Amino acid sequence: MVKDFRFGLSIRYFKSREALVEVARRAEDLGFDILCVPDHLGAAAPFPTLTAAAMVTERIRLSMYVLNAAFYKPALLSRDIGALDMLSDGRLEVGLGTGYVREEFEAAELPYPSAGARVDHLAHMTEYLAEHHPRVPIMIAGNGNRVMTLAARHADIIGLTGAKVRDVEDPLAERIDFVRAAAGDRFEALELNLVITAVPRSDETIPNLSLTRRNAPDLSDEQVLAMHSVLKGSPREMADRLLGLREKYGVSHFTVQDNHIDNFANIIAELR
């Protein structure tokens, strides 16, 4: 079954209340389906930002891409989720990840657990939230086998980070095949998400590749431009690229940074 496209806009920073209100309302007007906030020290605080966005919008859904589960205790996070879901009239989705930036744990004066312990806590958090908020969709984003297995078996949305986990010809296909095997009969109901890390400016066809290069420093420009998370060309060409990703891989949910709002809105217009 071909799933409808959904498009998310991630807000990492804003300078004022007015700026946040403007981008939230513009995202809704331009056809974005989800407004999300990451969870990093030094960036926007997820719950206050999303609550403010909920107060000035009507249709756009609200999420996190993604909460660092290791920063929270389940009952306390559950309280905030319940409040935001109520204040947004049921528009909330929850994004979860293990957390990975050691320096942020140190700045928060929290111990930095082992990778295995962080996955264990994510599993516990997912189970708790699913029990207490059964109507709130859960996304789990990551790349490793344990996280992808957890996502396949318990999440509603799979966040595919696009990182290359081993030397395979098509890492995205490999990760999706892994999720399919782990999910079993659940797979057809799952929504697959991919973050788009590079989009050209409205008057250009080649994107700035600096963000993408952080995770692929050794690749040539040609190789980076060929990555699934990178878009190039005209809005029509980029729309065709997303159609191709949906047809080949089943990925129908795409998230971009808010600095790409204008040109990505042109792509949305081509697809609707």
Characterize the structure shown.
With 272 residues, this protein is α/β, with parallel strands linked by helices. The chain has a single domain, classed as TIM Barrel (Alpha-Beta Barrel). 44% of the residues lie in helices and 15% in strands. It is built from eleven helices and nine strands. A nine-stranded parallel β-sheet has the order 3-2-1-9-8-7-6-5-4. Helix 1 (17-29) links the parallel strand 1 and strand 2. Helix 2 runs parallel beside helix 3 (74-87), helix 5 (115-132) runs parallel beside helix 6 (145-154) and helix 10 (235-249) packs across helix 11 (261-271). The longest helix is centred in the middle third of the chain and has 18 residues, at 115-132. It is globular and about 45 Å long. The chain starts with 5 loop residues before the first strand and ends with a helix. The mean pLDDT is 96. It comes from Mycobacterium asiaticum. Keywords: Flavoprotein, FMN, Monooxygenase, Oxidoreductase. One of its GO terms (molecular function) is oxidoreductase activity, acting on paired donors, with incorporation or reduction of molecular oxygen.
